[in-house]
Design the sequence.
């Protein structure tokens, strides 16, 4: 994987540029998985990650609320890809989660409150809270912003206009992949295809 590390404003966060030389390149594309709100549901979390392994998808964004560090350890110890993780409001032991990434799971990249990636020229930000995500989307820095917290799958496009003229100067897709806890909505996650610039929602029970 070709990477370039750059500074960002949040604790622990690193912006990385990923190219299609890194993941699932058989068809000349790179696919990225986005999951959130696993809430210690080991069967669902494991099923989703096993499916991703079978599909050759080895880059994952987790938008927070994994809950216990032991959950991350149990699921990710058998995953050879990279998981970018941001803290949610019920990730209680932030120290142990961060320590886990340094001592046991080098493929777990803890990004604090938010993280950044650039994939095939698309600038991506991710966090847990929808209000924070909306602010990132309005910053005119990103093409896509992913978030969690509500457990509800959602996608909208925010258009950015030049003040005083109404001229559109950019747009950003704001996306919630749903949850893997299975409550109160069905367990879902999202796949982003860099070649087609398309997002696909996956319903876990149908896999």
Sequence:
């Amino acid at each position: 994987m070709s990477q370039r590390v750059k500074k960002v404003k949040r604790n622990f966060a690193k912006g990385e540029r990923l190219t299609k030389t890194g993941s699932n390149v058989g068809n000349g594309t790179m696919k990225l998985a986005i999951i959130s709100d696993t809430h210690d549901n080991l069967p669902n979390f494991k099923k989703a990650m096993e499916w991703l392994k079978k599909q050759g998808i080895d880059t994952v964004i987790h938008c927070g609320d994994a809950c216990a560090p032991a959950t991350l350890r149990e699921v990710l110890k058998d995953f050879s890809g990279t998981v970018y993780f941001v803290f949610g409001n019920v990730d209680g032991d932030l120290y142990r989660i961060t320590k886990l990434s340094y001592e046991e799971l080098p493929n777990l990249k803890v990004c604090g409150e938010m993280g950044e990636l650039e994939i095939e020229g698309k600038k991506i930000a991710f966090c847990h809270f929808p209000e924070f995500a909306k602010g990132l989307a309005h910053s005119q820095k990103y093409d896509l912003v992913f978030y969690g917290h509500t457990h509800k799958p959602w996608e909208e496009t925010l258009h950015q206009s030049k003040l005083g003229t109404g001229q559109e100067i950019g747009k950003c897709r704001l996306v919630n992949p749903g949850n893997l806890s299975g409550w109160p909505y069905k367990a879902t996650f999202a796949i982003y295809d860099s070649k087609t610039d398309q997002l696909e929602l996956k319903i876990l029970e149908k896999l």
Q: What stands out?
A: The CA atoms of residues 13 and 111 lie 4 Å apart. Residues 5-115+178-206 form a domain with the Purple Acid Phosphatase; chain A, domain 2 fold (CATH 3.60.21.10).
